[in-house]
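As described in the Methods, two query proteins were run sequentially through the folding procedure within a single session, without resetting any intermediate state between them. The first query and its resulting C-alpha coordinates are shown here.
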Amino acid sequence: MFFIYAHIYLAAARQALGDKAPAVKSLRTALDAALPDNLLMPFVESNSHIQPLLRSLQRDRRREGVRRILDLAGNWNMGLRGMDAALAPYCLTPRQLELIRLAAVGKTFKEIAMHTGLAHGTVKNNFAALYKRFGVHGVKELVDNVMRAGLPVTPRQDVPL
Protein backbone atom coordinates (compact mmCIF):
# COMPACT_ATOMS: atom_id res chain seq x y z
CA MET A 1 0.00 0.00 0.00
CA PHE A 2 2.83 2.37 0.90
CA PHE A 3 4.37 1.82 -2.54
CA ILE A 4 1.12 2.81 -4.25
CA TYR A 5 0.58 5.94 -2.14
CA ALA A 6 4.24 6.94 -2.53
CA HIS A 7 3.96 6.84 -6.32
CA ILE A 8 0.63 8.69 -6.30
CA TYR A 9 2.14 11.45 -4.14
CA LEU A 10 5.24 11.51 -6.29
CA ALA A 11 3.07 11.88 -9.39
CA ALA A 12 1.13 14.74 -7.79
CA ALA A 13 4.34 16.50 -6.72
CA ARG A 14 5.94 16.12 -10.14
CA GLN A 15 2.80 17.43 -11.80
CA ALA A 16 2.76 20.45 -9.46
CA LEU A 17 6.37 21.13 -10.47
CA GLY A 18 5.42 20.94 -14.15
CA ASP A 19 7.25 17.66 -14.84
CA LYS A 20 4.42 15.91 -16.68
CA ALA A 21 6.33 12.96 -18.19
CA PRO A 22 7.84 11.79 -14.86
CA ALA A 23 4.47 12.44 -13.19
CA VAL A 24 2.68 10.19 -15.68
CA LYS A 25 5.40 7.53 -15.25
CA SER A 26 4.93 7.57 -11.45
CA LEU A 27 1.16 7.32 -11.81
CA ARG A 28 1.48 4.42 -14.25
CA THR A 29 3.74 2.63 -11.76
CA ALA A 30 1.11 3.10 -9.02
CA LEU A 31 -1.70 1.95 -11.33
CA ASP A 32 0.26 -1.15 -12.40
CA ALA A 33 0.72 -2.10 -8.75
CA ALA A 34 -2.86 -1.37 -7.70
CA LEU A 35 -5.19 -2.36 -10.54
CA PRO A 36 -4.51 -6.13 -10.53
CA ASP A 37 -5.86 -6.19 -6.95
CA ASN A 38 -8.61 -3.66 -7.70
CA LEU A 39 -7.13 -1.13 -5.23
CA LEU A 40 -8.87 2.03 -6.40
CA MET A 41 -9.38 4.10 -3.26
CA PRO A 42 -5.84 5.48 -3.00
CA PHE A 43 -6.41 7.13 -6.39
CA VAL A 44 -9.96 8.21 -5.55
CA GLU A 45 -8.81 9.86 -2.31
CA SER A 46 -6.04 11.70 -4.19
CA ASN A 47 -8.16 12.58 -7.20
CA SER A 48 -8.06 16.33 -6.66
CA HIS A 49 -4.26 16.22 -7.07
CA ILE A 50 -3.95 13.71 -9.90
CA GLN A 51 -7.13 14.09 -11.96
CA PRO A 52 -5.42 15.72 -14.99
CA LEU A 53 -2.89 12.88 -15.02
CA LEU A 54 -5.65 10.27 -14.76
CA ARG A 55 -7.53 11.91 -17.62
CA SER A 56 -4.37 11.80 -19.74
CA LEU A 57 -4.31 8.02 -19.28
CA GLN A 58 -7.87 7.42 -20.49
CA ARG A 59 -6.58 6.04 -23.81
CA ASP A 60 -3.85 4.01 -22.11
CA ARG A 61 -4.00 0.23 -21.64
CA ARG A 62 -5.12 1.01 -18.09
CA ARG A 63 -8.18 2.91 -19.39
CA GLU A 64 -10.78 0.64 -17.75
CA GLY A 65 -9.21 1.03 -14.32
CA VAL A 66 -8.79 4.78 -14.87
CA ARG A 67 -12.47 5.07 -15.88
CA ARG A 68 -13.55 3.25 -12.70
CA ILE A 69 -11.33 5.53 -10.60
CA LEU A 70 -12.73 8.68 -12.21
CA ASP A 71 -16.32 7.43 -11.77
CA LEU A 72 -15.71 6.62 -8.11
CA ALA A 73 -13.96 9.97 -7.59
CA GLY A 74 -17.04 11.82 -8.83
CA ASN A 75 -19.25 9.95 -6.36
CA TRP A 76 -16.64 10.35 -3.60
CA ASN A 77 -16.53 14.13 -4.04
CA MET A 78 -20.32 14.41 -4.00
CA GLY A 79 -20.47 12.26 -0.87
CA LEU A 80 -17.78 14.29 0.86
CA ARG A 81 -19.73 17.51 0.36
CA GLY A 82 -22.78 15.97 2.05
CA MET A 83 -20.68 14.30 4.72
CA ASP A 84 -18.87 17.54 5.55
CA ALA A 85 -22.14 19.11 6.66
CA ALA A 86 -23.00 16.11 8.87
CA LEU A 87 -19.55 15.94 10.44
CA ALA A 88 -19.16 19.66 11.10
CA PRO A 89 -20.54 19.62 14.68
CA TYR A 90 -17.85 17.17 15.75
CA CYS A 91 -15.16 18.04 13.22
CA LEU A 92 -14.73 14.35 12.48
CA THR A 93 -12.69 13.53 9.44
CA PRO A 94 -13.94 10.91 7.00
CA ARG A 95 -11.12 8.64 8.28
CA GLN A 96 -12.26 9.03 11.91
CA LEU A 97 -15.82 8.22 10.92
CA GLU A 98 -14.55 5.16 9.01
CA LEU A 99 -12.71 3.96 12.14
CA ILE A 100 -15.84 4.44 14.27
CA ARG A 101 -17.95 2.58 11.71
CA LEU A 102 -15.56 -0.37 11.73
CA ALA A 103 -15.57 -0.44 15.54
CA ALA A 104 -19.38 -0.25 15.51
CA VAL A 105 -19.58 -3.54 13.61
CA GLY A 106 -17.29 -5.24 16.11
CA LYS A 107 -13.89 -5.00 14.47
CA THR A 108 -10.93 -5.03 16.86
CA PHE A 109 -8.21 -2.38 16.68
CA LYS A 110 -5.96 -4.94 14.98
CA GLU A 111 -8.65 -5.77 12.39
CA ILE A 112 -9.30 -2.06 11.81
CA ALA A 113 -5.58 -1.54 11.26
CA MET A 114 -5.45 -4.37 8.72
CA HIS A 115 -8.60 -3.12 6.96
CA THR A 116 -7.44 0.49 6.67
CA GLY A 117 -3.72 -0.05 6.16
CA LEU A 118 -2.93 1.98 9.28
CA ALA A 119 -0.50 0.81 11.93
CA HIS A 120 -2.07 -0.79 15.01
CA GLY A 121 -0.62 1.97 17.20
CA THR A 122 -2.08 4.65 14.93
CA VAL A 123 -5.54 3.13 15.29
CA LYS A 124 -5.15 3.03 19.09
CA ASN A 125 -3.98 6.66 19.12
CA ASN A 126 -6.94 7.72 16.97
CA PHE A 127 -9.39 6.06 19.35
CA ALA A 128 -7.65 7.56 22.38
CA ALA A 129 -8.09 11.02 20.83
CA LEU A 130 -11.75 10.26 20.02
CA TYR A 131 -12.39 9.02 23.57
CA LYS A 132 -10.94 12.25 24.92
CA ARG A 133 -12.93 14.42 22.50
CA PHE A 134 -16.22 12.73 23.39
CA GLY A 135 -15.41 12.27 27.09
CA VAL A 136 -15.86 8.50 26.98
CA HIS A 137 -13.81 5.50 28.06
CA GLY A 138 -14.50 2.86 25.42
CA VAL A 139 -15.71 1.96 21.97
CA LYS A 140 -19.31 1.26 23.01
CA GLU A 141 -19.68 4.68 24.66
CA LEU A 142 -18.05 6.36 21.65
CA VAL A 143 -20.37 4.65 19.16
CA ASP A 144 -23.42 5.45 21.34
CA ASN A 145 -22.47 9.15 21.52
CA VAL A 146 -21.84 9.40 17.80
CA MET A 147 -25.14 7.64 17.03
CA ARG A 148 -27.02 9.97 19.41
CA ALA A 149 -25.53 12.88 17.49
CA GLY A 150 -27.16 11.48 14.36
CA LEU A 151 -23.97 10.58 12.53
CA PRO A 152 -24.19 7.46 10.36
CA VAL A 153 -22.15 4.73 12.03
CA THR A 154 -23.87 1.65 10.69
CA PRO A 155 -22.37 0.64 7.37
CA ARG A 156 -24.39 0.58 4.19
CA GLN A 157 -25.21 -2.95 3.10
CA ASP A 158 -23.80 -2.40 -0.40
CA VAL A 159 -20.33 -1.38 0.89
CA PRO A 160 -18.14 -4.32 1.92
CA LEU A 161 -16.16 -4.00 5.16
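Immediately afterward, the second query was submitted; its sequence and C-alpha coordinates are:
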Amino acid sequence: MESSATFSSLPGSGLALARGLSAADENALREAMRRCPPAAVEAALQFRRTGDPAQVPVVIDGLIERFVESQFRPRLRQDPAKLRLADDLGIDSLTMMEIVMLAEEVLQVTVNNDELRGLVTLSDVRAFLARKLAATAAPATR
Protein backbone atom coordinates (compact mmCIF):
# COMPACT_ATOMS: atom_id res chain seq x y z
CA MET A 1 0.00 0.00 0.00
CA GLU A 2 1.85 3.07 -1.22
CA SER A 3 0.02 5.51 1.04
CA SER A 4 1.06 3.60 4.15
CA ALA A 5 4.66 4.39 3.32
CA THR A 6 3.72 8.05 3.07
CA PHE A 7 2.27 8.00 6.57
CA SER A 8 5.09 6.07 8.20
CA SER A 9 7.84 8.10 6.51
CA LEU A 10 6.64 11.41 7.95
CA PRO A 11 8.69 12.34 11.02
CA GLY A 12 6.69 12.14 14.22
CA SER A 13 3.46 11.31 12.43
CA GLY A 14 0.83 10.05 14.78
CA LEU A 15 3.09 9.71 17.80
CA ALA A 16 1.57 12.65 19.64
CA LEU A 17 -1.88 11.17 19.07
CA ALA A 18 -1.06 7.93 20.85
CA ARG A 19 -2.76 7.83 24.20
CA GLY A 20 -4.89 5.54 26.27
CA LEU A 21 -8.33 4.67 25.02
CA SER A 22 -10.92 4.33 27.76
CA ALA A 23 -13.79 1.87 27.46
CA ALA A 24 -16.15 4.83 27.00
CA ASP A 25 -13.94 6.26 24.21
CA GLU A 26 -13.80 2.87 22.52
CA ASN A 27 -17.58 2.49 22.70
CA ALA A 28 -18.09 6.00 21.32
CA LEU A 29 -15.68 5.31 18.46
CA ARG A 30 -17.39 2.01 17.65
CA GLU A 31 -20.76 3.77 17.68
CA ALA A 32 -19.55 6.58 15.41
CA MET A 33 -18.20 4.00 12.95
CA ARG A 34 -21.06 1.52 13.26
CA ARG A 35 -21.73 1.41 9.50
CA CYS A 36 -18.07 1.23 8.53
CA PRO A 37 -16.34 -2.04 7.62
CA PRO A 38 -15.04 -3.94 10.68
CA ALA A 39 -11.43 -3.64 9.46
CA ALA A 40 -11.77 0.16 9.46
CA VAL A 41 -13.17 0.17 12.99
CA GLU A 42 -10.31 -1.98 14.26
CA ALA A 43 -7.77 0.19 12.42
CA ALA A 44 -9.29 3.31 14.01
CA LEU A 45 -9.08 1.75 17.46
CA GLN A 46 -5.46 0.75 16.82
CA PHE A 47 -4.64 4.26 15.59
CA ARG A 48 -6.23 5.86 18.65
CA ARG A 49 -4.40 3.46 20.98
CA THR A 50 -0.96 3.68 19.39
CA GLY A 51 -0.88 6.54 16.89
CA ASP A 52 0.30 4.07 14.24
CA PRO A 53 0.05 6.01 10.96
CA ALA A 54 -0.08 2.78 8.94
CA GLN A 55 -3.67 2.38 10.17
CA VAL A 56 -4.89 5.65 8.67
CA PRO A 57 -5.38 4.53 5.03
CA VAL A 58 -7.59 1.66 6.24
CA VAL A 59 -9.61 4.10 8.33
CA ILE A 60 -9.98 6.56 5.45
CA ASP A 61 -11.04 3.86 3.01
CA GLY A 62 -13.59 2.57 5.51
CA LEU A 63 -15.04 6.02 6.16
CA ILE A 64 -15.41 6.62 2.44
CA GLU A 65 -16.92 3.16 1.89
CA ARG A 66 -19.54 3.94 4.52
CA PHE A 67 -20.83 6.90 2.53
CA VAL A 68 -20.41 5.58 -1.03
CA GLU A 69 -23.47 4.10 -2.72
CA SER A 70 -23.30 0.30 -2.92
CA GLN A 71 -23.00 0.24 -6.71
CA PHE A 72 -19.74 2.25 -6.48
CA ARG A 73 -18.11 0.24 -3.65
CA PRO A 74 -16.34 -2.27 -5.92
CA ARG A 75 -14.46 0.68 -7.41
CA LEU A 76 -12.74 1.24 -4.06
CA ARG A 77 -10.41 -1.63 -4.98
CA GLN A 78 -9.03 0.38 -7.93
CA ASP A 79 -5.82 2.42 -7.94
CA PRO A 80 -6.43 5.23 -5.39
CA ALA A 81 -4.36 7.67 -7.47
CA LYS A 82 -6.85 7.33 -10.31
CA LEU A 83 -10.04 6.92 -8.28
CA ARG A 84 -11.85 10.26 -8.46
CA LEU A 85 -14.15 11.06 -5.56
CA ALA A 86 -16.94 12.76 -7.53
CA ASP A 87 -16.70 11.12 -10.95
CA ASP A 88 -15.92 7.53 -9.93
CA LEU A 89 -17.46 7.29 -6.46
CA GLY A 90 -20.37 9.72 -6.75
CA ILE A 91 -19.27 11.74 -3.72
CA ASP A 92 -20.83 15.20 -3.77
CA SER A 93 -19.85 18.14 -1.56
CA LEU A 94 -22.40 17.30 1.14
CA THR A 95 -21.22 13.70 1.34
CA MET A 96 -17.61 14.90 1.46
CA MET A 97 -18.50 17.10 4.43
CA GLU A 98 -20.05 14.10 6.21
CA ILE A 99 -16.90 12.06 5.55
CA VAL A 100 -14.71 14.89 6.82
CA MET A 101 -16.77 15.37 9.98
CA LEU A 102 -16.47 11.68 10.81
CA ALA A 103 -12.75 11.67 9.95
CA GLU A 104 -12.25 14.62 12.32
CA GLU A 105 -13.94 12.69 15.11
CA VAL A 106 -12.22 9.38 14.45
CA LEU A 107 -8.70 10.70 13.76
CA GLN A 108 -8.96 13.64 16.18
CA VAL A 109 -7.88 16.19 13.60
CA THR A 110 -9.44 19.46 12.45
CA VAL A 111 -10.04 20.13 8.76
CA ASN A 112 -10.89 23.54 7.34
CA ASN A 113 -13.46 23.54 4.51
CA ASP A 114 -11.07 25.48 2.27
CA GLU A 115 -8.54 22.64 2.54
CA LEU A 116 -10.92 20.27 0.76
CA ARG A 117 -11.00 22.10 -2.56
CA GLY A 118 -7.96 20.40 -4.09
CA LEU A 119 -8.96 16.87 -3.14
CA VAL A 120 -9.92 15.03 -6.32
CA THR A 121 -8.82 11.43 -5.82
CA LEU A 122 -8.77 8.93 -2.96
CA SER A 123 -4.99 9.24 -3.02
CA ASP A 124 -5.35 13.02 -2.55
CA VAL A 125 -7.45 12.44 0.58
CA ARG A 126 -4.92 9.99 2.02
CA ALA A 127 -1.97 12.33 1.35
CA PHE A 128 -3.84 15.34 2.73
CA LEU A 129 -4.68 13.57 5.98
CA ALA A 130 -1.11 12.27 6.25
CA ARG A 131 0.17 15.85 6.08
CA LYS A 132 -2.53 17.05 8.47
CA LEU A 133 -1.75 14.38 11.07
CA ALA A 134 2.00 14.98 10.72
CA ALA A 135 1.49 18.71 11.26
CA THR A 136 -0.63 17.97 14.33
CA ALA A 137 1.97 15.57 15.74
CA ALA A 138 5.12 17.54 14.86
CA PRO A 139 4.83 20.35 17.47
CA ALA A 140 4.45 17.82 20.29
CA THR A 141 7.63 15.97 19.24
CA ARG A 142 9.96 18.99 19.34
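The two ends are 29 Å apart (CA to CA). We note this only descriptively and draw no conclusion about the first query from it.
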